[in-house]
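Final report, Chapter 2: Outcomes

The project's central promise was a pipeline that accepts a single protein chain and returns its three-dimensional structure in a standardized token representation, suitable for archiving and comparison. That pipeline is now operational. To close this chapter, we reproduce one record exactly as it appears in the project archive, with the input sequence first and the structure output second.
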Amino acid sequence: MSEEAASSAAMISMITESPSVTASTEHKICNASDYQIAARSLLPTPLYEYLASGTDDEQTLAENESAFKYWYLRPRVMRPVGSISTATTLFGQKLSLPVFISPAGVHALCDEVHGECASARAAQRAGTLFGLSQHATRSIEQVAGACDAAQGRNANLWYQCYILKDRDMTLRLVRRAANAGYRGIFLTVDSVRFGFREADARNGWSALPEPHRLVNYDEEIANKPQSSESKKSSWLSPEASVDKTKIYAGDEDAWDQNTEQLFEQNPTWEDVRWLKREACHDLPLIIKGIMTAEDAVEAVKAGADGVMVSNHGGRGLDGALAAIDALPEVVAAVGDKVPVLMDSGVRRGTDVLKALALGASAVGIGKPVFFALAVGGENAVVNLLQILQREVEAAMAICGVESIADAKRSLVTRHPNGGVTRYTRSKL
């Protein structure tokens, strides 16, 4: 490691030693965004901006949220709403609300003791789905154990994977999730390269702070079969060579650029067929990162059981459409064939209802989970989900919608005067 990288790693390692990460706050929490306000006062600036920032000019980051404001609800009155239910079913799995925790890595940055176990338990308590990132700081089996998934409890755990240069490791990770009781797989396809986050470069966030590790990779490397056959496509083979130390403190200015070396740089839709055939034939496979009708069609042709509209929360390609604005064309292309999910920018119950009306089966949240974890751990994440559920219920009642199935396309419209989204730079 270079002296500069070592210095950066040492600086970052002090961040999670600060007691302020888990300190309480007097800020009144009324909505999801309040958790971000509260977390900003608790977290060191480099960590807060790592979580909150987007790429380049952060246009897509900002518009992910603001674009919802240019879809308007059309409330219907004099309709029975005395038995409102936010419950829904996704691939046979019952959810108490159509909001789930999207897969995102390194939860231990905000809850050093429990990491992803806290978020997964919160989702279980709220009766919804939790997506575990391949870049988690707790192992596939640890999270399953925290939720008793292997004992058949209603954990609704899903695992998120990437297509790695090391194909054997890709399969082993997914098979581990299946064996541990996970009930579905997200395949993220929008991250051949990560977007460059200038906030991380300015703050020297080029390493994962000690003592945190991407434990699933560490375990795979430690337990890697060393047969001559496996070495042909191994972590250490020329075509899949990766310097493990660079995952944690590399030479790039921003940490994500040090982890992207893991990913296959020449993916094709045949890789989806391969993953479905080799590891997901008994589990639903959702292709995450779809932003166009064309790719949605290709995903379904390749065997996907569903697609997820997502621009990686504005952390991938800047200048891409807001996810809510990409949703309608994807629904039009494949919504009659497979469930369509979405994330990126959801902050309000009205956002959820608008997405449902535009054809989403359920929506995911990412950044708010980290901020809630930082403010109050597992209980705060439960409260975050309860806030969203209350907001969804209220919006449904006022719109004359008694069940999720009643949220039809006629419920939303564009403003008669146009209502064109105007770009404003996001405020971290």
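Archive annotation: The two ends are 31 Å apart (CA to CA).
This record, like all others produced under the grant, will remain available to the consortium after the project formally closes.
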